[in-house]
Amino acid sequence: MESINFAKGYGKVNPAEESNPISPASRRRRRIIIIAFSLAVFLTLLIASLITVLLHHSASKSNPPQLSSNSADPLKTVCSVTRYPDSCLSSLSPLNSPPSSNPLRFFNLSLHASLLEVASLKGQLPDAEAAAKDCAELFDDAASQLGRSAESVRVEPGVAVLTEMRISDLQTWISASLTDLDTCLDGLAEMGSAAVGEWKVKVQRAMEYISNTLAILNNIRSLFQTFGLAMP
């Protein structure tokens, strides 16, 4: 009897074993689908991040930082971009009549003040000093560079004044005049007479005026934006 029962039970399998197992091909397809989905999600997040960065960069370029502006006193706003605001105010205040808020006019006034200051130096040279001759030549060159700059911004009506090329030329010429005065001071460094000391102060004041002129030029675009004016 036991042999018969054994024979009847032989060959039976567990119902769980009757279900078809997942084939290797199906596993590979499932793995590929999961990987593809993960890559799609990753690429979507990456593209979204790049778009966010580009939009932020574009917004930053289209909205440059503005200078703090005091509409009641444009001259102070202009002089605030310079390294020597006190000398900027003292040199431009007498010339700013009638009052203006045009950055180009302030640049021209500062350039004019610088040219007058440099021109006055030559007549104050201490004749007894050996460096006077060298400084006289340097002053002539500095005055020539500033005069060239002043002539450059005198254009016919309707002609663009502050083009990229003209701004670059102005920066070169004004910087050259500043270098001329600095070279003169270097030649006086070893002289300790009282006359030279007083004269060096005057040269340094002229250098401050020129430095202010260059600073106004370097910030001219921001100044026009601050005052809500179009570049000429």
UniProtKB/TrEMBL annotation:
Q: Does the keyword Ubl conjugation belong to this entry? A: no
- Its transmembrane ranges are 32-55
User: Which Pfam families does the annotation name?
Assistant: PMEI
The protein here is known as: Pectinesterase 3-like
Q: Which domain of life is it from?
A: Eukaryota
Which keywords does UniProt give here? Membrane, Signal, Transmembrane, Transmembrane helix
Q: Where is the Pectinesterase inhibitor domain?
A: 70-216
